[in-house]
Structure formats: C-alpha cells, structure tokens
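Why predict the complex rather than its parts? Because the way molecules touch one another can change local conformation, and only a joint prediction can capture that. The input here totals 423 residues.
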Amino acid sequence: MTMQPDLEANPGTILETARTQVLEQGIGLSESQLVEILRLPDRDLPAALQIAHEVRLRHCGEDVEVEGIISIKTGGCPEDCHFCSQSGLFDSPVRGVWLDIPELVKAAKETAATGATEFCIVAAVRGPDIKLMNQIKFAIDRINEAVDINIACSLGMLTQRQVDQLAAWGVHRYNHNLETARSYFPEVVTTHSYEERLDTCNMVKAAGMELCCGALIGMGESLEQRAELAAQLAALEPHEVPLNFLNPRPGTPLENQGIMDGKDALRAIAAFRLAMPRTVLRYAGGRELTLGDLGTRQGLRGGINAIIVGNYLTTLGRPADADLNLLVELNMPIKELQKTL
Amino acid sequence: MIPNRSSGPTGSTTGSAAMFCGHCGVPSDGGDSPASDVHHRCGERLAMEPPRYCAACRRRMKVQVTPLGWTAECSRHGVLAP
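Output of the joint prediction:
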C-alpha cells in the first residue's frame, strides 16, 4: 500500500472543497461530495488522508480514545445479519456461551490497565429480556465497585423503558450500528428493519446517553451506498462511529465475499471523517485483515481517533501492546478518563 | 476435564496428536484431499481467531474471547487457552 505523496489540493477539486468546507468551516461533506472522495484516484489518496487528519486534529484534538469490548452472551442470536457468525440461523461454528460476572469484572480491570477509558458489554440478542437486563445491572454495579472505566452497552434493539433503565444505571454510551446504507440494508438483514435500528438510536440520544452508531463496509455495497451510509450517519449525529471492515465469517451468507481493497478502506476512512468532522471515529473489526500494519498507521494519520484495544467479540485483534506502542510512536496521547466524563 | 491446556499453532492440544483442524474441523491430514489444499489458510486464520473445533474429537467448543485473551472449552477434552 505504498503511495506517492501528493499533498497539494488543487483549486476547484473536491479536496480543495474539503479543506475549505470541512477543515476551515467545520461543515461535513454532503453525500454527493463523499462519492467524489470515494472515487479519488490513488495519487490523490495521501492528500485526502492528510486533510482528514488535519480535520480530526482541529475538530477533535490529538487524543485517541481506547476501548475494550466483550461479549456477555455469545451466539444463538435470532436475527439474520448476513455478516455475523453469532446468528443462530446460520451454520456457523460459533457456539452459544454466557460469560459470568467475575470474569467480566476481571476483563474490565485488564482493559482499564491498558489505559482504555471505555468498556463495552455486548450481547448477541435481538433485544434484551428481563434476565439479561438484570445481569447488566448487576455487572455495572460490580464493575463500578472494582474499576474506574466508562461502561457502554450493546444489547440490540431497546424499548423506551430499557433505554431509561440503562441511562439511570449510568451507562454513558450505547452502541447500535446502522451497519450499511438504508438502500442496501434489506440485502444484509431481513429480520428487522432500518427504521427499527433508527428508533433505538434516537431513543438513546433523547435519553442523554452518548450514541455509538457504526458502519460495516465491504459487504458488496456500491461506493454510492458507502457515501449514503456516511451521510445517514452524519445526519444521526452520533458521538462515536466504529468503522468495521468485513471479515468474512465461515458459515455466514457473506463467507465468500472477498476482503475489501486496502486503499478503498483508506478512502472510506477519509470520507467518514470528512462527513463527520467532530465525531469519534473508531477503528473496529476487520482492520487487521483489510489494512494490515501499514494501513493501520495510514488510517490513524487519516482521520481515525479511536481504537478497540486487543480482541473483538469472536475474533482476535492485534496484541494490545502493539497498538499502544504504535500510538506512542505516532505521538498520539491516549484520552484520559476525566476528559470523557 | 483437563484444565488450562495450551494450544499449538493449529489449535491442537499440547501433548496430543491433532486429529482435526481447530479452524475448520476437517481431519488434519485433509481426509480425502491433500492437507495443503484443505487447510491452506487455516493456520493463518488461527493466528487471528481462537480454534472452534476440538483437535482431538472435532466437537465444537464453547469459546469466550476477552479483550486480552480467550478460552475454548471442549465438553470432553477440557479447556484450551493461548
């Protein structure tokens, strides 16, 4: 993924527009402008990443937010998200398993010791039932007794009562991804609708929790649909956008989908940053496969300002030390806990 | 149960012959096909994800991934850890 540096933005081009509109005025690019970013030739990619990095520094600061994620309930999900190895509807090798609370607390402590300020508890469910909500309440109390770390949750679609409960229990951020563009969603999920996802996202925001709402790209969507997704996320104004790249999982309908091109992934990083200049843009699943070590560096200098440390829910990430050392090398300080409260 | 055994590069248990691939569950020797064809990406995959199949009996294992580790439990052969 070696690229010749060509960092000049020519007048009248989309990059010059990005410099004026996003960097200087703080106004995200529109959907049609994002298509232009996603179609940039390779020679313009370094300049796009450079502008995206400057936007991130000016509008978000130099800190990088570090988070750990963990599955409290793995597998057996009744939904049919075609990318997910945890659906009970596919012939996936992932078995159902529940994590007990002492192990969860231990993981929270280990995560905090890396410098992470966020710990996200995830369950593979359509939405939480009473049993899961009770477990979450118990887990939050035990983690808060043991360690200083912000607790986030990702428990699928919520009712208003559940939203209110999580907010009252001190969950400061809730993850619920759009995953893909509205126009492509029916190709990826048939057991619930885009609108149902939006409903949960809007309730989370209205309750005062920070909304974490992410994307999964490389599922066969067009560049136009990738731009559509970025624009739809921007309209939702989430606090954080985790950016996932498809890691095709055995047994899922997308198992034979190829891994997306690394340069296209970098173009997407730049585009998402230029769509959302003030949002936390986090590296999430699949970056190791899609970008490798060099691409990871380029993305961190191209708009990304948050990482998931260590492993994902069912797959392994880079060793925590490797990413933390990389941040030191890039002179990017880890965001401290008090700055997130 | 054999607690806390460590896994080898193909998700097999230390000290026992790997009969099955920890990633795909196919016999390690490839069965009716050359092992190099069947498992050509399994080793690479197992560097990025825990084994899902017990190398001794091919049972699907209960796998728990945490931010800094993982365990994989076979109901017959116990727990694997990195």
